[in-house]
Write a structure and sequence with these properties.
Radius of gyration: 24 Å
Strand content: over 45%
Distance between the termini: 50 Å
Number of helices: 5
Oligomer: single chain
Shape: globular
Number of strands: 37
Largest sheet: 22 strands, antiparallel, barrel
Length: 635
Amino acid sequence: MSPSTPKPSISTRHLTRRAILHAALIATCSAVLVPATVRADDEMDVLRMLYRDTDLVVTATRTPKPLSQVAENVSIVTADEIEAINAHTLADVLRYVNGVQTDQRGGPGSYAAVSIQGSDARHVRVMVDGVTLNSISSDNVEIGAFPVQDIDRIEIIKGPASSSWGSSLGGVINIITKGSDPDRRLGGAVSASIGEQGTADLRAALSGTTGDVGYYLSAGGLTSDGVTPATPFDGGNLYTKLAYQAASQTKLQFTLGYNRMKRGDGQDLSYGIGLGSGSEQLFSTAELTYDLRDDLSLDVSGRVIRLHSFQFMEDLASGSEMYPQAFDELNAGTSVKLHWQGAHQNLLAGFDNDNGSVDSQAIKSGKQWLETWAVYLNDTLTWGAFSATPGVRYDYTSTSGSFVSPSLGITYRPWKGAVLRASVARGFSAPPLFYSYGDGVFFKSNPNLKEESVWSYAVGLETPVTDYVVFKATGFRHDIDDVISFAGTATDYTAINRGKQRRQGVELELRTKPVLHTSLMAGYTYIDADTPGDGAALATPPRYTVDLGVDYNDARVGRGTLRGYFIRQRPYEVPTGRFHAVIWDLNLARTVVERDNRKVDLFFTAHNLLNGSQYTDSLFPNPRRWFEGGVRFRF
């Protein structure tokens, strides 16, 4: 990426005017497209188009509570939505979430980075079953290779969640996996898909309950010769979840997951080199939940994650590897939570502790350690249509010291179907271990790095526009201090704390009630990112993103899902990119057999239907139009 050219940021007045114009345009289009002749007996609480008020969200405060009491800006993706888009990996799902941006460097399984409201990828904390997937050496997460067939739902907090989770300046992506089927001793699913360039995805899962024991078991594999040049992929995974109801007030749960992959990451023919990487990841949790009283529960859990990762360059002329780097990480931790649920109060106190290590020739002294511990307290107080969520957390990190993260959120339901939200929070992200102790080929360590900190503000409204359309709007601002950037030359650089950043903008979203089995959705995120004082625009965050969708679902005919996404970077900042096309993906499915508990579906996907180009670097072009199809059998 070329050095940025300073450019004055758009004024707040201009930002607000553009947001209002875009909101009016989307609202007008949706109102025209939705017939006004829908029968009155089909009316529903339109807010349920964005969420069900009875849905319980865990991530915001680490305790289940209705989403209408959550002050943070939250998006939820369900297993049904994941299946509708025939997704292979987590990156395939996140690209369609409003306010979330992904940069994927190829087809299925290829490297991908995730950003929330323009944050750096390392500022986003990604978790599964209570285990943080971020590498402690780099803070990277393999969202491009993480499989999705085991996901029950994904909860996404946009903005810092440090008062609950610690290091998470940009936000949290919490993956909640599927559990046992409580109604059957044995059930499951098998699926297979094949596509162009040798792409194949095979999955199988079993689930059921026997007596007091529930189980979920799955296995799968994804392979591809690469739908873009030099991006082959070979990966597989196993997953297990066991639950035991030891007594009416005692529950035990155990999970074990294993992911492996190896892939090509593209080529630079001008230098005659190819890029490659791979990893093996094993993670496990054990959890005891004990109800001390009807309104008081204790939760004790442990977790461990082991990660082996490697990357290399290949000399295309000789086929030999150059500059190989490998990292072996081990991290283990415990958590204790005490939860009290009153008539108008939801109080949680907790303690977290993690101890990790990294072994690598690219790390100073060959091995370094990271210790973290924290105590936190948060509450949710309700008075009629109001709720307030105060929270605070104290974190200690062996590399950068201590940090206090307070937060306060308020929600108010002013009229039927509407929710007003406002929140303010202080958050942080600790420097990756490699930044502090890395001793790579071109990199020099900086053990004096401080954590990056942020004060974040958000206000939002969800409300019906008509009886059939719901509108959601969120304004946000993130003021970041001690920003970590890089100094030096391309062959000798180091990480330093330097300056401030400001990211502010709006998220707009519209969804409609199904009419003639068809529903519409549109999302728009505008991000104004600059350095305070001189107003110089930042190169990395996109200027705006657009997400569009049409869903058709008729049990007699089948299901169709059309999704489009567009990311607009600053062309003068990224001259080798292409940002002029909406990428459309068409997904079709039809049930061909349905008898008793058995069901067979056929599905088909046309990726990049209009063959558009959208990428940030010409070395990593997006896949052109390609097709795949398959079959899914449930029993």
